[in-house]
Amino acid sequence: MADSVLSSVADGVARITLNRPDRLNAFAGDMRDRLHDAIDAAASSPDVRVIVITGAGRGFGTGADVEVMSDLLGRGDDTTFARLVQSGMRVIRRLRSVEQPVIAAVNGPAAGAGAALALACDFRIASSRASIGLTFNRIGLHPDWGATYSLPRLVGPGRAAELVMTGRMVDAEEAGHIGLFERVVPAESFDDEVQRLAAELAAKPPMALRLAKQSLATSLDSDLDAMLNAERERQMACFRSADAKEGITAFNEKRTAVFRGA
Question: What is the DSSP string of 86-111?
Fold first, then answer.
C-alpha cells in the first residue's frame, strides 16, 4: 500500500495525508507503519516547522478496517492483531515526541483510531462537516492509540467516560463546544483556513514554539514550582537566541519579523 500515506513539504509545512478515501482512510496493511515513517521524516527534517495531518476525500480516518479485523478474528490471528496494536503505539509515541507544532486538519469523520490520532496532535482545526467519536466498543474493542490518555486531558474525566462508553459520534459544533476541536470553520473555506494557520505557525520562532510545547506537555503532571523553574530556563534560552533579537528589533522598527530558527 505504497500510496496509503502521502507526504509533501512546502514553505516549512509538512502535510501528511491518510490516503484510502474509498474506505474513509481506515487503516489496513502497513498503513500504520507508513504513517509513523512519514511523521518521523517530517519531524527530523530541518526544513519542516509545522506538520499537518489530514485525510483524503471526505473522511479524516475511521480507524481499523473492519474487514481486516473480521479476517483476523476468523483466523484467530492474535499475533497479527497484537502487531497492529503495537504499530499504533509507535505512531502515537513518535507523534508525542515531535518538536514542531502538529495540527490535525479534521476534514470529515474521525472515528476510533482516527479520532485518537487527531486527539494526539497539538490541536485540531475542523471542517463544519467533521465529526469525531471513540467508537471502539461498537465492535467490542477497547480504546487504543493513546485515546485514554489524550481524551481526559482535553475534556475532563466525566466527559471522557461518557464519550468512550457511549461510543457516539460528536458533530463539529458540539465537538468545538466541549473542547475536542479548537477551531471549527465552514467546509467551503476549510482548506484555505488550514493553509493559513499552518503558514502563520511556520512564520513564528521555532525555538519559542518548541520550548513552549515542551512546557505544555509536562504542565499537567508538574507542580507550580517545577513549571516556574522550567519556564525560567526556557525563557533564558529564547532570550539568548537570534530570533529574540530579530523579534524585538522588528517590533521597534515596526516591521514583520523574519524568524530563522536560530
Answer: HHHHHHHHHHHH-SS-EEEEE-SEEE
Q: Give the HSE-up count for residue 103: Cα atoms under 13 Å, Cβ half-sphere.
A: 25
Q: Do 145 and 217 belong together in one domain?
A: no
Q: Verify that 110 and 221 share a domain, yes or no.
A: no
Q: Is 6 helix (H, G, I), strand (E, B) or coil?
A: strand
Q: Give the domain range for residue 211.
A: 206-252
For the chain, the first-to-last Cα distance in angstroms comes to 39
Under 8 Å between Cβ of 19 and 5: yes
Angle between helices 242-252 and 206-219 (to 10 degrees): 110
The answer to whether position 54 is within a domain reads yes
**Are 10 and 106 contained in the same domain?**
yes
In this prediction, residue 2 carries a pLDDT of 73
* Unique residue bearing C-alpha cell 499537518: 52
The reported pLDDT for the residue numbered 262 is 74
Q: Give the full edge-to-edge strand order of the sheet including 131-133.
A: 109-111, 131-133, 170-171
> How far is it, in rounded angstroms, from Cα 248 to Cα 28?
49
CA 90 – CA 53 distance, rounded (Å):
16
**Domain identity same for 166 and 228:** no
Question: pLDDT of 217-247, one tens digit each?
Answer: 999 999 999 999 999 999 999 999 999 999 9
Q: Which three cell numbers mark 223?
A: 507542580
CATH number at residue 231: 1.10.12
Classify the C-alpha dihedral 195-31-113-137 as positive or negative. positive
Alpha-carbon 34 to chain mean position: 16
Same-domain pairing of 106 and 213: no
